[in-house]
Amino acid sequence: RMRTIVHSTCEAFGASAEINLKPLYAVVDNHPEQAKVVRELGERLLGPDKVSEGELPILGGEDFSYFMHKAPGAFFLMGGKEAQVRGLSAYGSDKPVERSNCMCHNTAFDFNDNLIPFAVCFWIRLIENRFGLALYPEEELPMGFGAEPQPTAAADVANPIAVGGGGAAGGGSGKKRVVAHGDPSRTQCL
Asked: What is the DSSP letter of 52?
């Protein structure tokens, strides 16, 4: 299709083109079993309403695809869309500041530090699941999943994780939620 578009456009303007397509990245193709583990963990920690496959697959390129062509895995994203900079991200400021919520490859990107406790807890639980361990009881998690939501907890941010169940997928996003799509306002477990 690309060749047809390029050649037809050039022909319309009396020009010509030479096309040399070089694939740079392999497809990000989640393995269903690993994607299921991430999805189920997201549902357990955040609730089923925070897990989605909406807006997938997407065309994002990711070098992680090379790992998944060697060993089973699941590519997932965590986002942190918030209306205002607050919590860990506020760095002691008491003035409300709007958050840019830009994707990570944007010059206005501002990493949401409030994701750090959530991400640490999520990865600990993922490791526990993988190795059949119980490293920390629920009451010792910094985010206190299962307890009352804290102001900067994952439960306070819409859509924390995105998870795709196998097949081509990839991309980045924003809101904290397990979601498999490329909306910068959601998190993804792909």
From this structure: E
